[in-house]
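Worked problem 6 (solution included).
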Amino acid sequence: MAKILIVDDESKIRTILNIMITSQGHEIAEASDGLQALNLLEIDFFDLVITDIRMDGLDGKGLLKEIKHRNIGCPVVFITAFATLESAIEAMRLGAVDYLVKPFEEKQVHLTIERALGVGQLMKENVRLKEMVSESGKREQPLFISTLMKNVEEMALKVADTDATVLITGESGSGKEVLAHLIHDASHRRHNRFVAVNCASFSPNLVESELFGHEKGAFTGANQRKEGKFEYANGGTLFLDEVGDLPLEAQAKLLRVIQEKTVQRVGGNQDIVVSTRLICATNQCLEKLVESKSFRQDLYYRLAVFPVHIPPLRERKKDVIPLSHYFIKKFAKASELSKDLLTPGAVKMLMDFSWPGNVRELSNVLERAMILKSGTLPITSDDLFFLRSDLKAQIDIDGLFKLPPTGINFEALQRDIVRQALELTSNNQSAAARLLGLSRARFRTLLKMLDEEDDVIE
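Solution. The predicted structure is:
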């Protein structure tokens, strides 16, 4: 069954084609002009467009031009009233895959659609390959020399060519998506799509529609059927970042997809078989979320088939300078790359910094430095002046507190520091943990130990 869009300014023509085509089990949508058709193509996927050439406004030729320009990858069949060799040649020259002649013969309509859908499969594959080439050129490859990260790479490569679900943990900015790309690229699925989804970016009422798709009329605003991310990534890899932020109801449906290897669109009853490799990531402690009943225990065990932890950058300082060289080359002018990239003073500043934002923060710092000095090299300590205040706070921490001879209430001191961190970050626990140089999990453990959860947990 295919989804076919019929475009014609005569409702009678649309009705005739609708009756003929739906008799073969295809799904039909209609548009009365090219602009309306283009709007439908932007919000939904179609396997084929059948359009009249002559229409007011955006005509069939203009519609075909826009479809090609936007790389929609959908074949087009023209409708013509003149069965002449000239009109057929003109249609093919413009990029149409075939044409239909008025008045329609039902057998010819079915044969034309069958041929066009075959061409459509080739066009979709061509678009997919172009996307893969484009994405591979943009993708950042992991760069490290530390033993910790070499161990992570070794684990990733061992699991890559299996279909096991992988759970990547680590602080924000540590490179979880880059590692997921590495696993995908080393797997037998590398020629198919890698689809990345940030679960925290979805509103709770749309997360199921985004992941599993929806049928037309499933909810207000669902004007067309839509495939979800699992279907879109079929044959490839689906990367669910911030998986700990999924609502409980969506967690239950995700568990079913993992177990049954099928998805059911919102508002639908049909089980759709999918072969999608799942890689999940989180900067939260899922074990703690399970304890607090905000994450399903059975789902956790399904996701943690093969856990991989990425250590923060401050625990693998050997990677700072190789990564810095990589980012500088990325942001520098090609003519500057023969020069030294960093002065000894800049190296010392980069090595002394604790990098609470991990690799992402390092990338941002070096991009900012390159912008400020217009891309010229080498980067000096003066070019990293904005790190100095943060660096001084880190280096001078030993002098912040002197233990009085009478001693202190250590628990009260910890509680006060935790309260200050939460006040400075408007009760954002992740940000407060970074201020204290702690992981979010360790920070939550500290809160629990101090019996402060009722007052300060967000």
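Discussion: Residues 184 and 190 are 6 Å apart (CA to CA).
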